[in-house]
Amino acid sequence: MVKMIMVLIFLSSCNVANDILKKKMPNEKGPKVTIDSRSIINGFELIAENPEFCPITIKVNFELTNMRAESSTDIFIIPARAKNFVVTRIRRITEAKYQFRYTYIYNYGAHQLNKYDENFKYYLPFKRNETILVSQGYNGERSHQGEMAIDFEIPKGTSVLAARDGIVIEVVDSNTVGCPELKCKDFANYILVFHNDGTFANYVHLIQNGSKVKIGEIINIGQVIAESGNTGYSTGPHLHFEVFQQKMSNKVSLKTQFLMDSLGHAGYLIEGKTYLKNY
Ligand SMILES: [Zn+2]
232 CA to middle of ligand 1, Å? Predict the structure, then answer.
């Protein structure tokens, strides 16, 4: 679901007219960020705008002639909702002609983060007194190879509750199609949420128009955020739930503990077991 790569090429040289070539790759879903450059004394600065409600990491590849970047790194974190954020400055080294060119890729999240709240007790994402089967668990053979995701078997139209506080990053709920074949993969409705420890949660296969929340909305644990469905690559109505850290080209899927009862006990969910939510 997370798309990334966007490439921009910028050519500029001093003492001659600026020659600017910008190229954007198609970027359907996924994060949006704008990088521009503006002149400063003896060089340029790169300026970012991040319209997303979470940080974005960009990796810039510079090709510099007679210029030097101010920062030693080529990986930069752009804070959520940043405007006019100075990414780095590039300055000429000598009086001779200079030129720079760069490309960049980016994705959601602050990629240097490796720690997260491993002890967080996620709420079971359905209403009190419901008993739900975990039809597929972590690393499940059907479709969760390498994924620490959980499938909750629930009928279409079941209320989906936030498993943790967060802010809504993406909402897709216009799709109608679902089938047990890979050709349906891109038609899943979902809600992507950002947590305060830098992790993301994805609530997937929602029913058409099933989202109760909007991008940028702050959600609270236990709040109804959606109605479940069977959209996308799916063998039957269920909720696919996954928590992960986003890296530039891949996500690191994380095991999550769930609150098991009103006494505060927590544990990992097991495939084939049913769970009664009594809180
Ligand atoms: Zn799943």
Answer: 11
